[in-house]
Amino acid sequence: MTTAGPAASGAQGASSSQAFLKIERLTKQFDGITAVNSVSVDIARGELFALLGSSGCGKSTLLRMLAGFESPSSGRIVLAGQDITHVPPYRRPINMMFQSYALFPHLTVWENVAFGLRRATPARSDIKERVESLLALVQLSAYAKRKPHQLSGGQQQRVALARSLALQPQLLLLDEPLGALDKKLRETTQLELVNILEQVGVTCVMVTHDQEEAMTMSKRIAVMSEGEFLQIGSPSEVYETPNCRFVADFVGDVNLFEGTLSVDEPDHVIVDTPECRHFVGHGVSGTIGMPLTVAVRPEKMHISRERPEEAFNWVEAEVADIAYLGSHTVYHLKTATGKRIEATVPNTERHQSDAPTWGDKVFASWAKLAIIVLTH
Ligand SMILES: Nc1ncnc2c1ncn2[C@@H]1O[C@H](COP(=O)(O)OP(=O)(O)O)[C@@H](O)[C@H]1O
Ligand SMILES: [Mg+2]
Q1: Burial level of 64, CB count in 10 A (0-12/13-18/19+)?
Q2: What pTM was estimated for this model as a whole?
Q3: Who lines ligand 1 at CB under 6 A?
């Protein structure tokens, strides 16, 4: 099996201006509704790319168009320089792994992985060698003789992955790959899966509605809503610089303050909201009075008992709820205007006797660089 080591992926990086998978204005209408609405993106060879969005936003439809199970209403799909928009699924060098792994229950692990190879590769010795290397890759060599029901969910998932990789697809499509696993198992399996995909060097488009999964597993994420790409970026880009309220709210938790632009100076702007004045020291400008939303992530809020000395970027509030989550505590605060604010505090010490409690008056404050200003 050919694997892409660090040297190979470096070389790919150099030529990444040539997209491996080009999706161009791809659209799919089902009588009356537009499931996917003119989406475009270039994906590099070896990239792990995630489609993230809530149920019904068009993720599976887009993936099924890539696989060829659904024909686009308009737009183009180009893979390795070849227009495959109208190529039937079985002629595409693509494999799709479904949420229900669809393993054959009566076949052993070995036979499940060998299944597709039997039709494609006539030589028995080649099949044996290939299956063995795939089982080694997914660390299931010792389980070759078991049936699927004798495996854990995570192991079944790895068998399905080995089977999807058997014919060396150029593009692997994963639809909610870990959807059937419980939370703890998902987290470990996410990293295992990424390691395997990186070892193989296969280009991968995965679908998930789970933002942590998208962030853990992919290099870039397209955040989808109502059939459209709202933002495409690395996990940290979509989290730290979301381009709209939907993305800010969908990827992680966020406090949104709605207000208007009241001061516009070369080096700063001030946004006034009912709760407080927000001093923003970066990259925004506009017309006085225009509506803007100030977004601040909960972990960038500081809670103190003392009134901050600055004139900006803090609000007085009452502790309405406390969720102790072990590694951190989430404070739900309520301001005089009735607005709810979330602030997370890491629990760096085992006993914090002076921590605020229910009903306490506190001050939530944030740095000017913590502010994201959104226009829509
Ligand atoms: N075969 C189909 N016929 C009609 N409508 C469909 C079909 N497949 C999907 N849809 C609709 O397209 C939209 C997007 O669905 P889907 O791609 O499955 O979303 P997601 O995978 O993000 O949950 C939904 O409104 C869904 O009802
Ligand atoms: Mg789906």
Answers
A1: buried
A2: 0.88
A3: 30, 33, 35, 53, 55-61
